[in-house]
Design goal:
This protein is of the alpha/beta class. It folds into 5 domains: 26-79 and 119-165 and 363-394 and 444-511, 3-Layer(aba) Sandwich (Rossmann fold), CATH 3.40.50; 181-352, Isoleucyl-tRNA Synthetase, domain 2 (Alpha-Beta Complex), CATH 3.90.740.10; 407-442, no CATH class; 561-709, Isoleucyl-tRNA Synthetase, Domain 1, CATH 1.10.730.10; 742-801. The protein is built from 27 helices and 25 strands. The strands form 9 sheets. It has a 4-stranded antiparallel beta sheet with strand order 6-5-14-16. The chain has a 4-stranded mixed beta sheet with strand order 10-11-9-12, covered by helices on one side. α1 (8-21) crosses α22 and α2 (51-69) crosses α17. The protein binds zinc ion (ZN) (2 copies). One zinc ion is lined by residues 416, 418, 420, 431, 433-434, 436. GO terms for molecular function: aminoacyl-tRNA deacylase activity; ATP binding; valine-tRNA ligase activity. Keywords: Aminoacyl-tRNA synthetase, ATP-binding, Ligase, Nucleotide-binding, Protein biosynthesis. Residues 599-717 form the Methionyl/Valyl/Leucyl/Isoleucyl-tRNA synthetase anticodon-binding domain. Pfam families: Anticodon_1, tRNA-synt_1, Val_tRNA-synt_C. It catalyses: tRNA(Val) + L-valine + ATP = L-valyl-tRNA(Val) + AMP + diphosphate.
């Protein structure tokens, strides 16, 4: 018995439990069937479900459910990322609240603290994915820090070392002294800051005048090793090759020429401080300059800053400016607003700092990945992102893989007192160079993305040879956010080709970013976030899934509450029409044997929609697929088929009921990938098996000729509803018209002549418009097509009036 009112709350939870309990989400190797594999982008262990997860989860689940119904051995792999810096920051914050630091605790106790926190509070997103109806194989949940995965990570590092790609070097990094680690470019947020631009005179060593430079960081003058000018700048040509004296420290440094100098900035002469600026660092490497640092890892002036050691950069800058004033080398100071990088976690101003880090040479890894994109073996959707991914690979830079954190995979590198290093899978007995047994392990950990790069195959058991790897690698699709194309997608491509000898997936979906309804970024701190779990509570998971798919596009999209409400109406409408059919179908079984016009027509419409939905899912055009389904349910199935069939349904016409049930079956199957719960619940009313495991319909073109069979009736309804003019119809057409439009309820009082005149006028207007070359050339294609369709309908309506 179906309730008169559909309540998603109880129904959805019940099916989520049932599907999982009955093992309908799980996949195991099966050589008799083709596989279809998506690995979920592993969310942070600390995270909670946000709109991006909900949208991406829906996209992936729709694809997975669709393929499962099509007979594929579908695996949707779940799991978590340990998210080094994010997780460490959360736990450190808790320690601070207790008045402790991780240093007081020590590494081992701190790690135990993190694990404990994770067990209690972390790893909640997979539970939230369940509430979305996401059919991940939860029995396969992996974690980038679990034992097997950690082994894979170390194996990757050792492999890269064996290939000769791993090296240690001083490079400039984004240093956050608050978090005490180097952080990746992605974790740096740029925001405007009001600084002072200080103009400083650097006297020439030969006493012949001076060069003025402008700087926002006077404290770093102490680490200057050159002054650079653009080679073509006429103001400075005569100075190239001479020496100047660095203020405060009195160091004699050269004036060099470099193309990187922007003649328009400041005075056109640049102080070069390779130890504290990324651009200067590159200039310094090109000219073989020293890399001095005067600011330490704690954000304070270091021992090389002499008298200023221990001061903050701000305090040191004041002292330097005072010195400049006193020595008449300060030309002027002016206010200056500019974008400055800040740490995403702590908000601290980033210190570009040269430090000794571990690096991976990427050229040989990037080349085959670039080729895979160039050749089209890996396709991005929308394609513009493929270009972006390719550009990055073609200009690949070394990868800084060491992080000064505790939470993560500790580098498998051991040092001996003589400064040799040994890289090994497990603690070595002795130094590989000198045999010393006094070994100390490098305290740093690997970049979190180093482990994420292995996600498509480490989750399947790599580096062991497993049946899962044979069955499920390479996978099929990666669906993710735009921000992590470089950090994650490209690195999975490189790692997959290098370690597995094949690309990990052939399609990359870059989904829309869902913005707040007012167009701002969705963010908890801005108060613009919308919690998808609240949407699920209020409208159901099916409505939320439908609405999110309906919102997608190739661009960023504003969140639309209307789309979710539309999904809710769709679920209700489907419920009500199913209830109507099933209540009158007692004892009947689905049997496709269409006798009347509307029966053949709905079967044809369902098959035409099947084609549209398949095309939409194949091309990853989810909004188009959602629209097709909506139109099929609301307009075709409910408003026309069910209304037309109602009188015979009430008469318990057995042939009609068999066909109506068969049509409903097909409708449920088509809707299931997008709205799994309500469809499964209705299916269960007249089936013992599960819809999730049902078969996707084969093409059925037997009734294709009837796909437009109702157009005369539909036109007549349009005419009647607009003008109360009755169009003469006969036979089935008249019967359907009467059943659906129920003209007895509305008096046929319209003026047929006036309607003919009106239609003739519309036809000449439309013909004129389409004949206009300007309109045909300039209007968007869909506008032109819509106008043509209108014209055809007017003509049909006029003809029908006779
Ligand atoms: Zn920080
Ligand atoms: Zn040694």
């Amino acid at each position: 018995m179906m309730e008169s009112h559909y309540d998603p709350r109880e129904v959805e939870a019940r099916w989520q439990n049932t599907w999982e309990r009955e093992g309908l989400y799980s996949a195991s190797p099966d050589p008799s069937r083709p596989s279809y594999v998506i690995a979920v982008p592993p969310p942070n262990v600390t995270g909670a479900l946000h709109m991006g997860h909900a949208l991406n989860g829906t996209i992936q689940d729709s694809l997975v459910r669709w393929h499962r119904m099509r007979g594929f051995n579908a695996l949707w792999q779940p799991g978590y990322d340990h998210a080094g810096i994010a997780t460490q920051a959360v736990v450190e914050k808790q320690l601070r609240a207790r008045g402790q630091t991780r240093h007081e605790l020590g590494r081992e106790a701190f790690m135990a603290e993190v694990w404990q926190w994770l067990e209690k509070t972390g790893m909640t997103i997979m539970g939230q994915f369940r509430r979305l109806g996401a059919s991940l194989d939860y029995s396969r949940e992996r974690f980038t820090m679990d034992e097997g995965y950690s082994r894979a990570v170390l194996e990757f590092f050792v492999h890269l070392n064996d290939r000769g790609f791993v090296y240690r070097d001083n490079r400039i990094v984004n240093w956050c002294w608050e978090c005490e680690t180097a952080i990746s470019d992605l974790e740096v947020i740029h925001s405007d800051v009001d600084d002072a631009l200080t103009y400083v005179r650097y006297p020439l060593a030969d006493g012949e005048g001076h060069i003025t430079i402008a700087t926002v960081r006077p404290a770093t003058i102490l680490a200057d090793v050159a002054v650079a000018v653009h080679p073509d700048d006429p103001r400075y040509k005569q100075f190239i090759g001479k020496d100047v004296i660095v203020p405060v420290v009195g160091r004699r440094v050269p004036v060099i020429a470099d193309e990187a100098v922007e003649p328009d900035f400041g005075t056109g002469a640049l102080k070069i401080t390779p130890g504290h600026d990324p651009v200067d660092f590159e200039v310094g490497r090109r000219h073989g300059l020293a890399e001095l640092t005067v600011i330490g890892f704690d954000g304070r002036m270091n021992a090389d800053a002499g008298d200023l050691a221990g001061l903050t950069e701000e305090e040191a800058s004041e002292r330097v400016v005072a010195w400049l004033k006193e020595h008449d080398q300060l030309e002027k100071r002016e206010s200056y607003r500019h974008a400055v990088g800040h740490c995403e976690r702590s908000g601290t101003r980033i210190q570009p700092l040269v430090s000794l880090q571990w690096w991976v040479k990427m050229d040989e890894l990037a080349a085959p990945a670039a080729e895979a994109i160039r050749s089209g073996r890996v396709k991005f959707h929308p394609p513009v992102h493929g270009r972006v991914a390719l550009d990055w690979l073609e200009a690949i830079r070394p990868w800084n893989v060491s992080r000064q954190l505790w939470w993560g995979h500790q580098l498998p590198i051991w040092y001996c007192p003589d400064g040799h290093h040994t890289i090994a899978r497990s603690t070595p007995d002795a130094c590989g160079d000198c045999g010393s047994i006094e070994l100390t392990r490098d305290p740093d950990v690997l970049d979190t993305w180093f482990s994420s790069a292995l996600w498509p195959f480490a989750t399947l058991g790599w580096p062991d040879k497993t049946a899962d790897l044979d069955a499920f690698y390479p996978g099929d699709v990666n669906s993710t956010a735009r921000e992590i194309i470089f950090l994650w997608v490209n690195r999975m491509l490189m790692a997959g080709i290098e370690l597995m000898g094949d690309i990990p997936f052939h399609d990359v979906i870059i989904h829309s970013t869902v913005l707040a309804p007012d167009g701002r970024r969705m963010s908890k701190s801005l108060g613009t976030g919308i919690d998808p779990l609240e949407l699920i509570d209020a409208h159901g998971a099916d409505a939320t899934r439908y609405g999110l798919l309906k919102m997608t596009s190739t661009q960023d999209v504003r969140f639309s509450p209307g789309a979710i409400e539309e999904g809710r109406r769709l679920a209700n409408k489907l419920w009500n029409v199913s209830r109507l059919i099933l209540q009158n179908a007692e004892g009947a079984t689905p049997k496709l044997d269409p006798t009347s016009l509307e029966e053949r027509w709905i079967i044809a419409r369902i098959d035409a929609t099947r084609v549209e939905v398949e095309a939409a899912l194949t091309d990853y055009e989810f909004a188009a697929g959602a629209s097709s389904l909506y139109h099929l349910v609301f307009d075709d199935f409910c408003d026309w088929f069910a209304e037309a069939a109602k009188p015979r349904l009430y008469d318990r016409d057995v042939a009609l009921i068999g066909t109506a049930l068969a049509a409903l079956e097909r409708l449920l199957v088509l809707l299931h990938p997008v709205m799994p719960h309500v469809t499964e619940e209705i299916w269960g009313q007249f089936h013992d098996d599960r819809l999730i495991a049902a078969t996707w319909p084969e093409p059925d073109i037997r009734f294709a000729a009837d796909a437009d069979a109702l157009s005369r009736v539909q036109d007549a309804a349009t005419t009647f509803r607009r003008s109360a003019v009755l169009v003469p119809l006969e036979g089935d057409e008249k019967r359907i018209f009467d059943a659906v439009v129920r003209p007895e309820r509305v008096k046929a009082s319209g003026d047929a002549d006036a309607e003919r005149a009106r239609l003739s006028k519309e036809i000449s207007r439309s013909e004129g418009m389409l004949a206009n070359e300007k309109f045909a050339a300039k209007a968007p294609a869909d506008v032109v097509a819509a106008e043509r369709e209108k014209l055809e309908r007017y003509r049909r309506e006029l003809e029908a009036l006779g």
